[in-house]
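pipeline: protein-struct stage 2 | run 1193 | Beta sliding clamp
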Amino acid sequence: MQFTIKRNAFIKKLNAVQRAISSKTTIPILTGLKLEVEDDQIILTGSNTDISIETTILTSDEEAGLNIESTGSVVLTARFFGEIVKKLPDETLTLTVSDGFQTTITSGAAEFKINGLDANNFPHLPEIDSQTTIELDSEVFSELVRETVIAVSNQESRPILTGIHFKLDGDQLTAVATDSHRLSQRIVKLPGNTTESYDIIIPGKSLIELTRMLDESVKTIKMQVSENQALFTFDDTLFYSRLLEGNYPDTSRLIPTESTTNLEFSASDLLASIERASLLSHEGRNNVVKLTVSAADQVVKISGDSPEVGNVEEQIATKSVTGEDLEISFNPDYMKDALRSFGQTEIDMSFTSALRPFTLVPTEDRENFIQLITPVRTF
């Protein structure tokens, strides 16, 4: 097999596929990148058992400048191959595979020879038997993931919580994540009248990699679901992710329906205050910040202290304070993650007691986006 291609276009596709390749895999061939050259296209594939990425370069793509001399396939060690291609001296490169899968890469005066593997030993990509495709706006989907993935658990002891729970019911898509200390839920309405229903859990790490691939050039993303795989399609790329098995906990009962104290803030102002208070709380053994509400005086204070360093106290500007007095402690890192997800909007914080989870919602879209944080007991 032999082809010539512009190096920059090739690097872009290599970078996409390498997101799915891990050097830590126990299956040696999966440290490699599969190159499949057909009459009118090259197909690049990478996989790590959790995700698989396949992308295509067409001869009709003028930016790629792809010229195919002969067809064939090979698997090349991804790490070495990627580094070689990035450091080649010329704008174009030629790749030739001879008998025994020895691969020659030439560009300008440089020539590399590396050993390849038989592509027939590379695992086949999953088959998606779903007949239904959901089309999503890529920006909305990226935002959905970004706003919920912050609450995904990193603890493998409860694998089900390392994913985002997606529930599709008609035209409503709900995404929920929780690590049992906090929860994030986002609901979006889908265009069109779909009658489909899904209930799936996709690993958070897979979704982070997927959203990193969705740049401004990608306008829509298509999603298909089978028994244990989700397939996302955009441009010339296929992104497969395994699904997590099991039942996600019923998170709806965790969200309080009543409150005794309500505060309204600018999310960015509150975030800045929490960041200042956490400068000291991070130095202490207990990473805790305290919020004190004096409803009668319309005063809200944030404080943090570290016996080793000192303490900080700050009065925060609020839009409104209603309900009962309150003193509550929480992990400032959870609060910062939650506040960043709201951007520059105004938010409502609702409390039921010092030991019950409290909620943050945007004032203009309170039904469709909620962050919940469990307080820290300090006595």
